Automatic annotation (TrEMBL), chains A, B, C, D, E, F:
Residues spanning the membrane: none
Name the UniProt record assigns to this protein: 3'-5' exoribonuclease
Molecular function, one GO term: exonuclease activity
Coiled coil: none
Amino acid sequence: MKKGIGQHQIGETVDLYLLIKYAKKGIASNGKPFLTLHFTDKTGEIEAKMWGITPEDEAKYISGTVTQVSGDIQDFRGNRQLRLKTIRKPDKEMKAEDFMPSAPMAKEIMLEQVNQYLFEMSNAKIQRITRHLFKKHQQAFSVSPAATKNHHEYVSGLLYHVLSMLELARGIADQYVSLNRDLLYAGVILHDMAKVRELSGPMGTQYTLEGKLLGHISIMVSEVDEASKELGIEGEEVLVLQHMILSHHSKGEWGSPKPPMVKEAEILHMIDNIDAKMNMMDRALDRTQPGEFSERIFAMDQRSFYKPIFID
Amino acid sequence: MKKGIGQHQIGETVDLYLLIKYAKKGIASNGKPFLTLHFTDKTGEIEAKMWGITPEDEAKYISGTVTQVSGDIQDFRGNRQLRLKTIRKPDKEMKAEDFMPSAPMAKEIMLEQVNQYLFEMSNAKIQRITRHLFKKHQQAFSVSPAATKNHHEYVSGLLYHVLSMLELARGIADQYVSLNRDLLYAGVILHDMAKVRELSGPMGTQYTLEGKLLGHISIMVSEVDEASKELGIEGEEVLVLQHMILSHHSKGEWGSPKPPMVKEAEILHMIDNIDAKMNMMDRALDRTQPGEFSERIFAMDQRSFYKPIFID
Amino acid sequence: MKKGIGQHQIGETVDLYLLIKYAKKGIASNGKPFLTLHFTDKTGEIEAKMWGITPEDEAKYISGTVTQVSGDIQDFRGNRQLRLKTIRKPDKEMKAEDFMPSAPMAKEIMLEQVNQYLFEMSNAKIQRITRHLFKKHQQAFSVSPAATKNHHEYVSGLLYHVLSMLELARGIADQYVSLNRDLLYAGVILHDMAKVRELSGPMGTQYTLEGKLLGHISIMVSEVDEASKELGIEGEEVLVLQHMILSHHSKGEWGSPKPPMVKEAEILHMIDNIDAKMNMMDRALDRTQPGEFSERIFAMDQRSFYKPIFID
Amino acid sequence: MKKGIGQHQIGETVDLYLLIKYAKKGIASNGKPFLTLHFTDKTGEIEAKMWGITPEDEAKYISGTVTQVSGDIQDFRGNRQLRLKTIRKPDKEMKAEDFMPSAPMAKEIMLEQVNQYLFEMSNAKIQRITRHLFKKHQQAFSVSPAATKNHHEYVSGLLYHVLSMLELARGIADQYVSLNRDLLYAGVILHDMAKVRELSGPMGTQYTLEGKLLGHISIMVSEVDEASKELGIEGEEVLVLQHMILSHHSKGEWGSPKPPMVKEAEILHMIDNIDAKMNMMDRALDRTQPGEFSERIFAMDQRSFYKPIFID
Amino acid sequence: MKKGIGQHQIGETVDLYLLIKYAKKGIASNGKPFLTLHFTDKTGEIEAKMWGITPEDEAKYISGTVTQVSGDIQDFRGNRQLRLKTIRKPDKEMKAEDFMPSAPMAKEIMLEQVNQYLFEMSNAKIQRITRHLFKKHQQAFSVSPAATKNHHEYVSGLLYHVLSMLELARGIADQYVSLNRDLLYAGVILHDMAKVRELSGPMGTQYTLEGKLLGHISIMVSEVDEASKELGIEGEEVLVLQHMILSHHSKGEWGSPKPPMVKEAEILHMIDNIDAKMNMMDRALDRTQPGEFSERIFAMDQRSFYKPIFID
Amino acid sequence: MKKGIGQHQIGETVDLYLLIKYAKKGIASNGKPFLTLHFTDKTGEIEAKMWGITPEDEAKYISGTVTQVSGDIQDFRGNRQLRLKTIRKPDKEMKAEDFMPSAPMAKEIMLEQVNQYLFEMSNAKIQRITRHLFKKHQQAFSVSPAATKNHHEYVSGLLYHVLSMLELARGIADQYVSLNRDLLYAGVILHDMAKVRELSGPMGTQYTLEGKLLGHISIMVSEVDEASKELGIEGEEVLVLQHMILSHHSKGEWGSPKPPMVKEAEILHMIDNIDAKMNMMDRALDRTQPGEFSERIFAMDQRSFYKPIFID
């Protein structure tokens, strides 16, 4: 099978179909306009500059366009960059969806597995609220990325992140028997659900206005409030679920107005952390040769990770 | 008129009716039980120890009881303390309410004045949401303290704080004409409204469970959401009002998951600050002689304020 | 009336008289010299690059020169930039002063109004010290900017800032009757007065050596000391005025070696904050369309402010 | 079976054999000497004051002594305190060991299980170094607490903590297949091993001099260096193992001179965190009634945890 | 020679003439008044409680009184405390000065040595300003402590600290020839000189009002301003001297509104640090046995220092 | 004698033999490859760009090559930059060593002087360990830089730094007689010794893998452990020496897992600081004209230092 853009090394020449994820016009130091293009396919991403553009180019090569591109992969300040030789619209119609990176599992299978966790819950109030909200947002939830960048920022990334956390939750609850599985599973399923409102969706993902002014945590706390009223559910379960969502970033400076004050809320935060960090480290190390350090990971204090030689 | 407990100096002997605000049993270093009593009347508060108590004393002198008390006011580590001589239940029935410190204005007048600000609003959406919530919580709102300690921690303290902020808001909006009065007034009226759910009320004020796990900011954001749905109001006004409430503590580490990102939200935070600080400084300086420093104010970085002699 | 440089949008072509505020020579990546020019007129500022310059150009287009300029306004990394087509010295003599942005009120009127506040003071010591220093620095004070950037950085910006704070002070003192008006007004008038020594004046504003090594706070504390000795004034008033100046940045890390320890000093800090922030937010939002976020404001934690659509 | 000291409530009268864990002489405010005694048995701990002591009492009731004690359990500033009625040496010889709290598993079984993890390792260098050090310190390791306070501070606490972490490690490595099991297991087994040198052992646990001046992290890095030289092992494995130990506290301010820069080191830190926090939360919540908040947990930012009512 | 109070160990009985440094009345838990007395002589300090006092005792045993005292030295929470047996006024008149701890050198010798450094200066402006201020404050300077606590808090402590720093300065200037000796010596002599105004003098040392509201740094900057005007000295020397004083605490949060921006200012800060820390460590370690840790030193991050056994 | 590269001013034309310290290929904004070259000789360093390079150029002009270069010195964003006119390999063979900046003393003399300090030690254990390690690493130690940048980053920079610190140590120990000279001298000699393992040596200095993963502090602590075992030395001296090395960066966030807890360790940290800062300030000020501010010094909080005019 033909290699994708993420699999080519510096020095190689490529000729590929690529989707334009972002396109931004700039002015070069010689005063001429150019485009900065972020290309993507299922295997990865690359940036390119298109020099000396015409107004037609600017109108033609916009976000969401599939293009046929050739060029060389070069090193630019430690990152790969594509030096464009040719770019054109392909002869045949091609779907943007087929070029967007996505989770390594089919969304139908993932939805099915999350449903299994819902099914296992024994507290009816927690189960009903969680299932209600899961159904309500299921469509957007099943394709949303988990973030605009850093981790799980691809189609169905949110669902994949949640499923991975559910598996961690099960393992930890098996080991520490005092943990309440219902709370933990519900917390995992709901904690980031309002990302479907905070983010604009899988293509050209941006923050929405309510995402910026309220954030997914506050939005989701209101959603649980509303859902419980709609379902006629009262009691501490509603409050504790809201608290788990509210506190899952753990600290005020990270966006949680209250720190975890329920045991399962503390564990939810830690599971979230492990899955996000594993995702970031794995991606950075996939692009690193044994005996080398990875690129710096912004969301992990700009750390760079070493890939030992003895781990083949 | 007879002086109240807050008006007596160290060295004076008192004989007064006082309300027990808190009562807590302890064990002295000689192994005998004693009570720590916080007495209050309209003019202030004082602590006393009741040594060598009987089980009957413990049952009799509980929070909410009006007592007749005599003793001397002494200095204890820089604070006034009452050295009890006699304590007994008064012969006649006396109402606890008559002994609780409260705002320096009648609540009916204050409610009327807040209504005036509501009346001045020109944006119908903002006005309807704010009025709806003001009516809904009016009863509790009119007696609630603004906090358990630090500032405006007395009967109707919340309402007094809001009214004082509304006056500041009007003055600032007169000066800076770009400010939107509706947003600013609505923000002031709503910002702390959920303290009626966060706190247990004016007597023996404590945090409620939802106060601890969610906090008044998150509770109020949900209330605005619910109110707007109930009233069938949609649009940016709802979102911006929620943002003003959400951001009024200004920083993550102070409890706001988002910083102010709307001009009126920033001003709301500053007005809140001025009124709270004026209240704390005035109270501390009322108890300070010219040429002396006040007691340290906990919520103002433990600062102590100097009262100049030339200001009589 | 013809539009000024601050009123032109990206994409427009301009032909204007503009003052060169700064000019700095650089070397392009092709090794050739160029000038970075900051042009200004009453309505705003813009940056431009002048490529391939000669030594004559370098000598001709210096800070303080009025020029006749044509070109296009372009977007450069999110900011407006002027792409120069032609530049030349105008045929007629033009005064730099006529092109410098300045306060929206005449300095004579503002001086008169500040005098009114001086006149209202009742404490003779405070009044005499404040008036003495106000007279001493009146000339520089009446044209000085309040800063090199961020807020009120234009001709008479300092005076405008002070007058605006005096109005805030009056409103707040009307509301909180325990505040001492003399102290508050004097604090406002004096707090930034030494900016006339810290900064080099309204044209091409830079920090002076004493500005860098001592700062306006320490300089002004010495000035009050000297003034009181010259006027033969002694007493706590001198000390408290010095303290108000010393503490008006509130915290050590913001440049105040002592935090406010007098009530009016605390309020002075807050008034200063409100007026500076209102100025920054208003300017940023003036350039923002409804429904958009403003540029980031450096001195407000890099925050960007949203301009609601419903506020026309 | 008779209840232990940890199972008695405030208000109950007890008559028990208890071990003196600490004994410290003080001077009461009446000038007379007294002893502060920390009593313990398998079920918990309690503090008591012994008033009006003689020099004989002081010599008799020292750390490590088993005593027969009667008294009442009282509340002292929110903590349980024992009000002593009688205390004497028991008639029969009793072993201190039988009164010390210890891990809930037999040390022989735990050692056997750790051996199983060692056996599963496939990298011979990592396995040999880890086994060598495990054998070297096995005796002390099998009884050492993991800390002087906060978590796992009981006999065999260190071994129990390590075994619990190994189980977590296995679960996480099952889920994230890119993790190297050998490194992770070795990191878990070695990370706190030098606590056998940092702490003085299970009875009256204190920091040793080398514990204070170097700390268990630095000591253990030297031990791995020495072990590898002794075994003639060279290569990156030695270095990476040392790095895992060095970085397991994650940040400089928490005692790690280098942050994790190898994926397994990051995960080691997170597993350590989860197990320590679960231990602290479980212990605090075991002493908490449903519907109440636990005592504050010092090492978790002084947080107090709520025990929901719906979790029976 | 008879041992002083600082030389007696816990357990010893003493009969000594001692000066009362502070006396403070309190109320015991039995409701009776008592005095807390801080006694001092040349060799050290000790605290005592005087129980069951009369109003006559309170009037008699005040700060500044020399007394004849007998009692036992006991341990109170890790510190020595005197258990009073008898206390009375001595028969003969005794001077308080003879009982106050003071610098280990005669002030006349120290003044002479500082003069020597003044004499060595070659820049006439720096020399004249420094000498002028040194003469002006010489009397108070020669007896002032350097602080109320922490380091050099005894009679002539300020002068001793300055002389010690001058010696360090000479050594460092000998080694780094680029340093300007005049600036460095002048900076050392002037940096803390305004402590003679910030503190109330050697007996019962407290902060003065100007000490609290302005601090010694700001006071001294004004003094240099005034001195240079009086002497008719102008030029950069004045400014740089002021900067050295202003910046000698190095950071805003430590009280310096500007950080050092002149090389000698940076070195001044470091010399100040070394001398203060040596003084604190030496005093703490003088009271520590080899093989033990010292008490915690508050101003050095609460650290405790180990006294190695091999250093006899 | 002909001027070196460090002695030429902006605007001058040069023709010099220069060593290439680093060479890095980049891609210009026009898409063409270029080299960034860091040239050095004994007198200083300069950066240059070589445009439009061929693959042959890339292979020829690598790190460690001596070249003959001509060009102009220009200003580039406040730093000097060389505009290359010609570059070629010299006709005759030239040694890289002759072009590398190095300490201002011959290494043989410095080694001899350090030996003198070793000779003066009286504690045999400290002396033997220190001498053993000094001999072991003498060769690398005598040429190693002290850092990759910031201070003493030249051939023999480490040895020069150590010798300078030894002289400071002697002066301070002369003044404060309670300091133990053996500990202090040994601490100075050993504290940075493992930089010979942390850094790759004097040419093209980089961090080694063990430098990155462990750091010189941890490496050296292990080396002292090993040395003492090899020499059969036991006792507190070993532990205290290890502690001095461990704590010499003073704080966790600066890389020391333990703060100084021995007096000589605290002084070691301060001496290290003085010498490093003097080196940084002197270098920055050597390139600064009187009456100007130096470039910003990265490792001193980005401060810029003023060079007074009156210091000629």
